[in-house]
Amino acid sequence: MSRGDHTEQAILEAAEAEFLDKGLALAKTAEIARAAGVTHAMLHYYFRTKEKLFEKIFEGKVQDLARSLTATFDETQPFLDQVAKLAGAHFDFIAAQPRLPMFVLNEIHHNEERRKIYLPMLVNALRDTIRNLGLQLEAALKAGEVRPVRTSDLLFSIASLNVMTFAGLPIAREAFGMDEEDVRQFVAQRRAENIEVILSRLRK
Amino acid sequence: MSRGDHTEQAILEAAEAEFLDKGLALAKTAEIARAAGVTHAMLHYYFRTKEKLFEKIFEGKVQDLARSLTATFDETQPFLDQVAKLAGAHFDFIAAQPRLPMFVLNEIHHNEERRKIYLPMLVNALRDTIRNLGLQLEAALKAGEVRPVRTSDLLFSIASLNVMTFAGLPIAREAFGMDEEDVRQFVAQRRAENIEVILSRLRK
DNA sequence: AATGAAATTAACTTTTTAGTTAAACATAGA
DNA sequence: TCTATGTTTAACTAAAAAGTTAATTTCATT
Question: Chain A contacts of B69, Cβ < 8 Å?
């Protein structure tokens, strides 16, 4: 491990924070370097350009987002429990990276080339989950356990509720003067509510 | 009406489209001017700075968003019908300006001063609606028409489902190769589904 | 200790974009 | 028609941020 590894790592970490918070356009290489404790020439030494550094971060984030949309199922459990677990797991995933979905959505929207490269990843992850969830749903339907609903709608609703919980959180926090504890409570409350909303839609 | 009015209007319209699509940071004054069919010096002649032009647009958009969160109630109707109407109206509002919520959310997030100025508008609109919706909900609860739920959660879920329907639409469109008709169908489908999700949560 | 590659710095250049200015033009009203 | 005012243009400047370079330092290896 050469001494430069530490610098490179520091830049990557500072860049991740800066890009996730501000996006590519508003992030400044000088500010990333400052946060990493190095001169901004180092950033170019290790990553050549702001765009190349961004891609390094962004690729990982797209994979994270794709993973958040990937679910595994335990077919021995009741379907509603499976869905509750899926929705809860997705919520926790986003909770751990609250800015992730909007960040990826925004950057992909603002750059056609990135769309071409990274959309397929997300679409593939999505397709897998829809297929698997669809199989379980079909079985539950035949067993008369749930009301009919499109699989894609079910998944879309879960994602919508969970993502939006965090998309506006920093703003809600300021708007209502919430402290750390308020936020924790709000998030816990929304987690339970989102799951309840989804289960209500399925219950007969 | 002086001849400059047309120029000013053309710039405003081009700016609105550009800002909503790209955000303040990525929007270029030269590109706005080009789209408006004038030189970019004209933009500064009429609006002084990019920021001042942006504020002109942004203020209106925040008001639009606040209005989208404002609901009136017809107390003679069954509560579930009122909620369905509210959710549907909100959906249609966002459908007419699909980029509006994310645009305002993003810009407010990236600028502290704007947060200070514009958040109270949104918070006020929200408070009014929560209060009114809360009164109706309480009555419906006493009448045994619905299951208990926090008013703020109910409203938050409606907004989440409706906003996310459009936040990812341009991307979903490209990802799944949807044409105009596919999009129309998807939107109509989501409108019905979002309302059904909300009503399911309320029904006993 | 000498060497050389990797790492770091400070100062520089380039590029992009916002913003300015002075001169030309248009037009309504005296 | 003359003039004053508002409008438009082309060419400019200013500022900010990305990116480069050459000189210097560090440090592992011989």
Answer: none
Q: Left if phi > 0, otherwise alpha if psi is -120 to 50, otherwise beta: which for A124?
A: alpha
* Consecutive H or E run containing A36: helix A29-36
Structure tokens at B53: 């032009």
Task: Compute the distance between CA of residue A190 and CA of residue A147 in angstroms, rounded to an integer.
Answer: 24
Per-residue pLDDT band for B3 (boundaries 50, 70, 90) equals low
pLDDT in tens, B9-44: 999 999 999 999 999 999 999 999 999 999 999 999
**B129 vs B115: CA distance, rounded Å:** 21
Give per-residue pLDDT as tens, B125-146. 999 999 999 999 999 999 999 9
Residue B37 main-chain phi, psi, to 5 deg: 75, 30
**Angstrom distance (rounded) from CA B176 to CA B172:** 6
CB A132 within 8 A of CB A176: no
pLDDT attached to residue B2: 64
pLDDT of residue A30: 96
The gap between the terminal CA atoms of chain B, to the nearest Å, is 60
pLDDT of A116 above 90:
yes
Q: Distance between CA atoms of B187 and B193, rounded to whole angstroms? A: 10
- DSSP for A126-177, written as a single string: HHHHHHHHHHHHHHHHHTT-S----HHHHHHHHHHHHHHHHHTHHHHHHHTT
From chain A, pick out residues whose CB is under 8 angstroms from the CB of B68.
Answer: none
Model pLDDT, residue A1 = 55
Half-sphere exposure of B14 (CA within 13 A, CB side): 23
Chain D, protein-covered positions (CB within 7 A) = 6-11, 17-22, 26-28
**Residue A8 in contact with residue A53, Cβ under 8 Å?**
no
Return the C-alpha torsion angle A31, A36, A37, A39, nearest 10. -60
**Residue B42, nucleotide of least CA–C1' distance:** D8
